[in-house]
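We treat protein structure as text, and this decision shapes the records that our systems exchange. This encoding replaces a full spatial description with a residue-level series of whole-number codes. Below, we set out a record of this kind in full and without editing:
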Amino acid sequence: MAGNKRKRKTAPCTEEAEIECILDERGADNGNGKKKKRKQAHEYLCAWTDGQEPQWVAAKYLTGTPVLEEWENQEEEEPEIFDPTAVLAEKCHSLAQLIQNAKRTSILLGAGISAPILPTFRGKHGLWTKGAHHNKKANAKVSDGLQPTLAHEGLVALEKAGFLYHVATQNYDDLSSRSKFPAHKLSELHGNIFTETCDDCHKVFHRDFEVPKDDSVDHETGRHCEDCGGILRDSIVHFEENLPERALTTAMNKFAESDLTIVLGSSLKVEPAASLPFRGRKRTRSNRVYRDVSACIVNLQPTGYDSQADLIIHGTCDQVIYAVAKELLGSNWR
């Protein structure tokens, strides 16, 4: 990591070592205008690439370094909220009743549904937070043999029983497909890390390995179509890129037609996916056709759309979907 080399004091000499990442920060001005009796030096706790014990390094030595820029771009962790057991059970019952009475139920999936086996982005120790170094699942990959979660299984069972109209996922981990959720009822809004598409004939290849390349140019995977020889490109949607038109249009229409929408494990910070669950309600108001449209958010942290939800459940996706499936399908639904 160029620019991250700093002197590390070790007995009996001083040696130069490279910083791998910043783990913590102390002594920064909190901006509240209060004077402290004893000012603490502004320092960063740094991990080293050679595996030595982390050490505190004065902030002035890290100014302008890539490792400091990376730290400053990471988000602060929001504390998780867990509903008490009895409250969670009552809320799951309410959600089950909503699903049972709804004509069309559509669901938006976030990273939280895969959290039991994969790292999240903004959840506890999420990959985009300053606690990311605590994440024991940071290097987990579906290609290593990981299987869909209990919540994924529950959605498949609920769909087979006729309770689900459509599912849109912000996850590119392929777990919805691997759980055998019907492709015609699934919109992958941010792509799929296991698929690549031909530029010329548009054939989609579903691989058993991750297709993107770290040094890819314009999503090229370095492979060519087995039918026509055309260039193959991955489908991953990066920041500031447009979502796939067909998947987005389908999801927008399905959610607008739904009378119940559910968010499973999403912070709802990335548009346009974040507003999908509330499209039916907006359409109802604009057309002055007052349908009974309900929205539920299942997430362990607050979201910017909480005020628009009729039901907010602070529980894991596995807990909630298991309880809902058990009530609607019976104890032996698995």
Summary: The two ends are 48 Å apart (CA to CA). The longest strand covers residues 13-26.
